[in-house]
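Deliverable D5.2: sample structural annotation.
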Amino acid sequence: MKAIHWLLIVVLLVPLAFASCTGSKETAPASDQYVVKGKVIAVDPNKLAVKLDHEEIPGLMKAMEMEYSVENAKVLEGISAGDQVQGHLKVDAGNYIVTDLEKR
C-alpha cells in the first residue's frame, strides 16, 4: 500500500517539477498601434526621425508637435516638410515609432 502512495506522489509531482524547471515564458505585451494624422514639420533621415504637428491620437495623446523615430528609412521616402500625412504609430515599451507614412 505504501508503494502505491509513493508512486502516486511521484506521478503527480514529477510533471509539476518539470513544468516549473522549464521556466515561464513571460510574453511581452503586444505593442499598440495608433493612426496618426498631421503636418510634417521636419524630416531627419540621418536620425531616422520625423517631426509632426499631429491631430489628437484617440486613446494616446492630445494634438501636439512632436518628433518621432521612424521604423526605417523607407518610411521617410517621398515625405518632406509641409506635407499633410497619415500613418501608423507603434507604442512599444514607452517608445513611439512611426511605422508608415503617406501623403494625404
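Annotation notes: The two ends are 79 Å apart (CA to CA). Helices lie at 2-21.
The annotation will be released with the project's public dataset once the embargo ends.
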